[in-house]
Model the fold of this input.
Amino acid sequence: MTRKDSVRAAAESAKDSVRHAAEVVAPYADTTRDRATQYANEARAKLAPKVSAAALQAAEQARTQYDAHLAPRLEQARTHVPPKVDQAAHEAAVRTRKAARQAADYSRPRIEQARVAAGPVREEATSRSVAALAALRGQVSAKQVEKLVRKQERRARVGRLAKGLAVLGIL
Done:
């Protein structure tokens, strides 16, 4: 085998590898694009009041650039995919969508429950941050803070005493 023949063989092998990679990745990229579009639409529906117009423009621009640059290449790659591989990839995509829906259905109640449970913690963090900001601005004096701390300690002691007396009374 001459040097020229070995270079041709290596080039052909590289081309085959690239074709194979394109064939394998094309269905997943297509499915990923569909899922990403769905997730983007869901996120936009939930976060629309909070998202600025610039972010929406950026998403639209990304979608446009995807359609202009990547979609044609994916379609070209899909034309080289054997029918059996395409069918297998399609079935894998269907199963993946089904698994994603099942995962979402399973996790949605738990996420909602965690969000509800985090409510009091969020409110406490908000109140503490407001208090800290007021102290930093000098709107609350050190005496007032010490007075509040003593008051809270006193309430805690009385609460422990009441609890102890209640347990003693029950016994």
